[in-house]
Write a structure and sequence with these properties.
Shape: elongated
Distance between the termini: 87 Å
CATH class of one domain: Alpha Beta
Largest sheet: 3 strands, mixed
Radius of gyration: 24 Å
Order of helices and strands: HHEEHE
CATH architecture of one domain: 2-Layer Sandwich
Structural class: alpha+beta
Number of strands: 3
């Protein structure tokens, strides 16, 4: 009985060690690295689109000219807004999107003409 437990434990340890070796080997492969970076870029694009759509369709931000840039969950909202209320509204909406970890402000308040 004890020999069987040792055999099972040894098998599990061997599989784990082989898995670690394969993981280390796979990350050295340029194709794997490229596919992982492309997946990150795709996630960034999806997140940017979600934030842009939310800001573009919000009635409280009518008259605003906004652009969104994001990378790894950090979203920067830039452009012009008509007033302080719109600026705060844009930041609050951007931070409410699932996947956004941080929102940075690059907006300016448009002076009345």
């Amino acid at each position: 009985m004890i020999k069987r437990h040792f055999a099972v434990a040894g098998f599990i340890a061997a599989v784990a060690l082989c898995g670690l070796g394969l993981t280390a080997f796979a990350t050295d492969d340029p194709q794997v690295i490229a596919s992982v970076s492309m997946a990150g870029e795709t996630l960034d694009a999806v997140l940017n689109e979600k934030v842009e759509t939310l800001l573009r369709t919000d009635i409280g931000l009518a008259g605003s000219q906004l652009r969104v840039q994001g990378r790894a969950g950090v979203v920067t909202v830039g452009g012009t807004v008509p007033d302080e209320h719109s600026l705060r509204r844009a930041l609050d909406l951007a931070s409410s999107v699932r996947g956004v970890r941080e929102v940075r402000n690059a907006m300016e308040i448009d002076s009345p003409k």
